[in-house]
From TrEMBL:
Pfam families: Aminotran_1_2. PANTHER family: AROMATIC-AMINO-ACID AMINOTRANSFERASE (PTHR11879:SF37), ASPARTATE AMINOTRANSFERASE (PTHR11879). It is an enzyme of class 2 (transferase). Its cofactor is pyridoxal 5'-phosphate. Belongs to the class-I pyridoxal-phosphate-dependent aminotransferase family. This is Aminotransferase. Its EC number is 2.6.1.-. The keyword Transmembrane helix does not apply. GO terms for molecular function: transaminase activity. Coiled coil: none annotated.
Length: 398
């Protein structure tokens, strides 16, 4: 049975983590990770989450099955975060939300549902994109192509290239867009550009699929949902996958959601019935613990305020690390423009380092980064910032 089974390629980031763990050098730093680390270099357990969790453990509730689409207390909370607590969308009943197994699971059930609705279409992801986007939509059965996005000469977005790509797509093409904190580049669209992209999707009859894995990591909860709100204003149907892995620091609990904006209550009812079939045949219904924690935190005004404060702390720390890295690089490599470090948003930065420079960082300094030159800014802290900046400057000087 297994004689002809080939060994699949190793996940590049997990491979990096293994190499890092095996490195004996005490000064080593892992910038390849995709998680938020605090100033101590640890994954935080948020105090708001801890309080909600302790209360839940005290209640000692039985563990029955959840509704297929997840509990209403959770899906309602997701909708208020994405679309705004006062959005008429919520009272109109036009939006469908289902709990997903993290943002990844939300993308996948969205992909599977779309395969039933528009089986012969093409999916477009940004160039570059989070590497799993391609895998997820290919696994759902779609051909996956890229649209122009990153401009290495500016460290920002090639907006003219992106618009030209959108204009050339066939009607009903699915366009995966990073709603904020683009992974891997950190290069985001501005407000006016989002409006143009939304209009281009209307004009081209495209199916927008917004992926929001980092809400609250750029400017704040509402500000980071600006892209979602622009699409809402157009009135066209669209998909949103969202995740609490990062902003609640609940990675291993796998809490995410898929939201689908439809044209009417009747459409929403039919779409939900199909989405439930997709879920039912995948994993039947979602796990309860992580989603209950999120719902409990968001339902309590006290815990919600505490969470927003904690999220703000993560956001401010990332910004401080960006500032610190930029200042140090500017001082060490005069004449080179490092403004992209603070212009990019979220956990990641595309440094422009070549694969050879990334290799030197690893072999000479024990600093691990992704071959593309992506570094995780949230892995920097006051103890390693000088060392990392000096090492990057040294490899840049050649
Ligand atoms: N989308 C993007 C753009 C991401 O960066 C990530 C996480 N790295 C995800 C989705 C998936 O998040 P989750 O861990 O919640 O599945």
């Amino acid at each position: 049975l297994f004689a002809a089974v080939e060994l699949a390629p190793r996940d590049p980031i997990l491979g990096l983590n293994e190499a890092f763990a095996a490195d004996p050098r005490p000064q080593k730093v892992n910038l390849g990770v995709g998680v938020y680390y605090d100033e101590e270099g640890r994954i935080p357990l948020l105090a708001s989450v801890k309080t909600a969790e302790e209360a839940r453990v005290r209640q000692a509730k039985p563990r029955g099955y959840q509704p297929i689409e997840g509990p209403a207390a959770y899906t309602g909370a997701v909708q208020r975060l994405l679309f705004g607590a006062n959005s008429p969308l919520l009272t109109e009943g036009r939006v469908v939300t289902a709990q997903g197994l993290g943002g990844t699971g939300a993308l996948r059930i969205g992909g599977d549902l779309l395969k039933r609705i528009v089986p012969d279409t093409t999916v477009y992801i940004s160039d570059p994109s989070w590497e799993n986007h391609r895998g997820i939509f290919e696994a759902a059965g779609f051909p996956v192509h890229t649209y122009r996005y990153y401009d290495p000469s500016t460290g920002g977005v090639d907006f003219a290239g992106m618009k030209a790509a959108l204009a050339a797509m066939a009607p009903r093409s699915i366009v995966v867009l990073h709603a904020c904190c683009h992974n891997p580049t950190g290069a985001d669209l501005g407000e006016a550009q989002w409006k143009e992209v939304a209009q281009a999707c209307v004009a081209g009859e495209l199916v927008p699929f917004l992926d929001m894995a980092y809400q609250g990591f750029a400017e704040g909860i509402d500000a980071d949902a600006a892209a979602v709100r622009h699409f809402l204003a157009t009135g066209i149907p669209f998909f949103v996958s969202s995740s609490f892995s990062k902003n609640f620091s609940l990675y291993g609990e796998r809490v995410g959601a898929l939201s689908i904006v439809t044209g009417s209550r009747d459409e929403a009812e039919r779409v939900l019935s199909q989405l439930k079939r997709v879920i039912r045949t995948n994993y039947s219904n979602p796990p309860s613990h992580g989603a209950a924690l999120v719902a409990d935190v968001l339902a309590s005004s006290e815990l919600r305020a505490q969470w927003e404060e904690e999220l703000g702390g993560m956001r401010r720390r990332i910004r401080a690390m960006r500032e610190g890295l930029r200042q140090r690089l500017e001082a060490a490599v005069p004449g080179k423009d490092f403004s992209f470090v603070t212009g990019q948003r979220g956990m990641f930065s595309y440094t422009g380092l070549t694969p050879e420079q990334v290799e030197r960082l690893k072999s000479e300094y024990g600093i691990y980064a992704v071959r593309s030159g992506r570094i995780c800014i949230a892995a920097l802290n006051a103890r390693n910032l000088d060392y990392v900046a000096e090492a990057i400057a040294a490899v840049l000087r050649g």
